[in-house]
Amino acid sequence: MLKQRNRDFPLDLSKKLNIAHINLCTEVEGPYKRMAIWFQGCNILCKGCCNPELQEIKVSHLMTVQDVVDIAVKSKAENGIEGVTFLGGEPTLQEGLPCLAKALAQVDLGTILFTGIEYDNLSDDIKANIDLIVDGRYEATLFDDERNLVGSKNQQIIYLSDRYITCLNWFMKNREKKVEINVGSMLFVNGDVI
Ligand code: SF4
Fold first, then answer.
1. Does any domain span residue 192?
2. For ligand 1, is residue 46 a contact (CB within 6 Å)?
3. What is the count of structural domains for the chain?
4. Does residue 73 line the site of ligand 1, with CB under 6 A?
5. Is 135 in the pocket of ligand 1 (CB under 6 A)?
6. Is residue 10 part of a domain?
7. Counting atoms of ligand 1 from 1, which one is nearest the CA of 151?
8. What is the reported pLDDT for 3?
9. What is the CATH classification number for the domain harbouring 104?
């Protein structure tokens, strides 16, 4: 059953986000073409974290919610992205995350959140506009070799809207090793480690 949500909180487009990387268009961070955002900083510190360089709590690239929405809208027009994936680091440490999700929903971009926090411990504002959450810390002893993109078997795929209901197969098909390399102003590699 889909979750009941209260989306009625103020939208502040000037809130700051601390971003490590943005990939404007990827096909390995969720179904369809997506923009992926890696936030800087995580206080959960799972053993075997695949992005340990993003754990340090430090200033990386400070951008406003408006800046990021403008980039996503441009990528939608130029690359045909369907939505945006939030990764880390721990995205929920960003005070501006609820506003970012709300602003992206207003321009009809879907949102997927990967968080080390369990669903029941997330705030209502974070849950308000995200379409799908993969929750819980990474447990190396419970490595998940069946679900695409899900790190360990304790992590749940939670649908908060019906936007990705038909994408279950994308997550449940046999895990594929995929690496995508974008060469732009910087060399950027994302996907599974091979
Ligand atoms: S929550 Fe994510 S980013 Fe943080 S330590 Fe765990 S796997 Fe790494």
1. no
2. yes
3. 1
4. no
5. no
6. no
7. 7
8. 66
9. 3.20.20.70
